[in-house]
Amino acid sequence: MIKTIDLSKEFGNNSVLKNITTTIQPGEVVAVIGPSGSGKSTFLRCLNLLEQPSSGEIWFHDNEVANSNANKTEIRKNIGMVFQHFHLFPHMTVLENVTYAPVKVKKLKKDEAEQIAKELLAKVGLTDKESSYPNRLSGGQKQRVAIARALAMDPEAMLFDEPTSALDPEMVKEVLDVMKDLAQTGMTMVVVTHEMNFAKEVADRIMFLDEGRLMEEDKPQTFFNQPKTTRAKEFLDKVL
Ligand code: ADP
Ligand code: MG
Q1: 161 C-alpha to center of ligand 2: Å?
Q2: Pairing of strands 205-210, 29-33
């Protein structure tokens, strides 16, 4: 569904992604792990063209989208993104947060968007919060709204950038559970995470980045039990 070929990104003379070549299959759940500063967020941001790659190709289905005049809004409509710090619209209620883009970008009728939003809010366990403003919600609730909001666009794939890193420990599970359910529905997901248990249990594949390089790419069992590179071994020694 998504394929990168020699994807590279530089900020000035800081080479942040170096020739990343990978393919994400429909329905696949990929966990992206690696040390801080290794390029994980930049990789995700390139996938939905929030960052313009310096070189290389990004294919979405049969279209090369990094070097063409592809309509970036069109790509982003199909790839939802969830951030560490939620990025909810503070002046809108939960329901308005979830219906805003479907009405504005997808031109859904308000009733239709609200019906979809209510179904999604039920799915993430927030039916009783639809009239609340974000500042009245816990971090875990905010993140579940952010997930519902991304899903309201009916995306083909979802990108998550450390969705639980800003949460108090007791709220991590409620968000990971929503993500697990989503994975079980067959959603294509790329998840940057430090939650190694989630990566082990839910991911079909691990991508390990180090200093902008894709050092290893393997099934979780193989990666966690038999990492091939010293870098991965050192990383796992620190986090496990
Ligand atoms: P990670 O998510 O793995 O922690 P990032 O992708 O955020 O890593 O960052 C990788 C490197 O790119 C870091 O050195 C960071 O400082 C740099 N970087 C990220 N975004 C920008 C930007 N917009 N401008 C300049 N440098 C950036
Ligand atoms: Mg990051």
Answers
A1: 7
A2: parallel
